[in-house]
Amino acid sequence: MDKKKVVVAFSGGKDSTAAVLLLKKRNMNVHTLFMKVGVSDENEKEKKVKHLAAVLEVPLKIVDVGTHFKKEIIDYFIKSYKQGLTPNPCVLCNQKIKFKLLWEVAFNEEGTDAFATGHYADKILLEGKYFLKEPVEKDKSQNYFLSMITGERLVNTIFPLSGYTVSEVREMVRKFPLTGHRESQDVCFIGQNNLIEYLKDTIPKAFRKGDIINTKGDKIGNHRGAIYFTIGQRRGTRFPSDRKLYVIEKDVKNNTIVLGDEMDLFSNHIQVRNPVFWGAIQKGEIYQAKVRYLSDFVDLEVIDVSGNQITGRFTKPVRAITPGQIAVFYKNDIIMAAGPIF
End of a domain among 140, 158, 190? Predict the structure, then answer.
């Protein structure tokens, strides 16, 4: 009987390397795909990935997704900042690139039975449909980043790390020549720059002096460009005050920011546009929501839902809800819907 063939999205980091090792241990016929997205240090990384694949004794295929990556991820990232939004490119990369383009390449290979990644994630079958489920390593769970891929992609997907902790994975791969230690939620295409340096190089015209306004609408100072700031930011405004003031609004079009007290950052409502529905979202139901990757779960009542919008009301006010970030709706640790905040 032939071995089950599984194709692994392979970056050469600790998580995807551990995924390969675990699948080989399960006596599977493991193949790997390295995704080239067009970042500056990629040729050197490709050499390291080829060497690591040889050490692991698995076939490696290089997949150039640079054109699609620029259009779907980089252009979206820059456009979002131009519009005053704070985007999450990793969520979109999983949806548009890894679990679309790379997934399709994997199943175009002859005899492929499954696609696998090194995400800390798990899946569960409920009433004939697959949903994301929390892995053993809940502190490292990457379900948030997978929240917009849809359940259909999970049918033939394997998450080998679902039952392992970070420390177990690190021990598993410590003797292998890994490509690096960049965390998967880092913005890979920024390179060695920080975010502001990257945006200055990309959209320099967005960096111009503008007005700082208080909650009454009065001009109280100047800033270096609204694009510098995100909701909830306190440092960097260069505005002297006898109390702590935070960015509570920004308007990139008019190049203004509004400063207010911390209490002004809290909101009871949220609106999500063009969500991905994993299951039925019911008006009047209570869900647990995350408004960013590292935020706590907060109870939320859905007060309106349509094909392209969800409106919710939190049971207690939530701090610094940021347009452009992804809101994810959970029911009993299972993702039911996700989409960008606006």
Answer: 190
90 given a catalytic annotation: no
Catalytic choice (9, 19, 92, 93): 93
Q: Do 35 and 161 reside in the same domain of the chain?
A: yes
Q: Tell me, yes or no, whether 202 lies in a domain.
A: no
The verdict on 51 and 181 lying in the same domain is: yes
Q: For the chain, what is the domain count?
A: 3
Which one of 188, 199, 257, 291 is the catalytic residue?
A: 188
Q: Which two tokens stand for residue 170?
A: 């690190």
pTM: predicted TM-score of the whole model, two decimal places:
0.93
Which residues, including other chains, have CB under 8 Å from residue 265's CB and lie 6 or more apart? 231, 232, 246, 248, 319, 320
Domain carrying residue 333: 266-340
Contacts of 174 (CB under 8 A, 6+ apart): none
Q: Are 329 and 281 in contact (CB under 8 A)?
A: yes
Q: What is the pLDDT of residue 2?
A: 72
**Stretch 189-199: mean pLDDT:** 87
Inter-residue contact 239 to 221 (CB < 8 Å) = yes
